[in-house]
Amino acid sequence: MRALLIVDVQYDFLPGGALPVPEGHLVIPAINSILDRFPLVVATQDWHPANHGSFASNHPGRSPFETGELNGLPQVFWPDHCVQGSQGARISEEIPQERIQMILRKGTDPTVDSYSAFFDNRRARPTGLCGYLKERGVRQVWIAGLAGDYCAYYSAVDASDLGFQVVFLEDATRPISPQGFLKAKEDMARRGIRIANAGQLTWEE
Question: How many helices (H) and strands (E) does the chain have?
Fold first, then answer.
């Protein structure tokens, strides 16, 4: 059984949002074109409290996109984004919500960031997604969403480490940094993660 994991396609990561991913809106038609191919669709949602430690605004003297540490871990300090209950935190309504069986909220702990859909960045706390997928009989996890060099990438790596076969849908993701995306793809290839384009796949039912 295969599942589609739609990572963080939220308004703050789309054009006009607080932390827009370049061309992030282009993942939506690619995702919608393949939704009916999956018996299980899961979406993730960054869901940060306003005092989240990854926000530059919570560190006097820090500017967005500077790097530093958060409780001993390397951290990019981001603009405030995907604050709980805000418009920017909502999943794009251009993705048919009725096709999503579960929405997993992450990044709720203000003391640690949470890029992956499976763990926080300290890898101390699983989100429960692994157990949910395995209980449903999922063997393959197909990754789409934002951003290709951050949350989608880390989700793909963790899914592979947890024993799933992973397909990373390059045309259904967009990165923040092209250079970072190249390194992410090289790392995924080394790990045996399949990188494919949804529009060019021959589907096996």
Answer: 4, 8
